[in-house]
């Protein structure tokens, strides 16, 4: 069975902000996977996309990626980071994709591997 990968808000914004080809990189790292994201992340991307500017553009692209490429899951948490951690802690996600250092640590503390930026535009896996 393919591992489940929970994608955080800032990961969806990487294609615009950091020129990272998110799903190409996930394909390179993992031999098949199921991308998921909490509803709270989709909502955060929607709100950020209304701001305009580079952040708004990145969030708009991220929102499209989330809704087109990921299974969107409901969680008890309404704050995006807490929702991602909830997926990790309950065993729904075997990987968390984020560049947020505190969130990376929370995922590792929950014994979930983290996929984050290494170098200019490549992703790498950190095991707990």
UniProtKB/TrEMBL annotation:
<dbReference type="Pfam" id="PF18477">
    <property type="entry name" value="PIN_9"/>
</dbReference>
<dbReference type="InterPro" id="IPR041120">
    <property type="entry name" value="PIN_9"/>
</dbReference>
<feature type="domain" description="VapC9 PIN-like">
    <location>
        <begin position="5"/>
        <end position="120"/>
    </location>
</feature>
<protein>
    <submittedName>
        <fullName>rRNA-processing protein FCF1, contains PIN domain</fullName>
    </submittedName>
</protein>
<dbReference type="InterPro" id="IPR029060">
    <property type="entry name" value="PIN-like_dom_sf"/>
</dbReference>
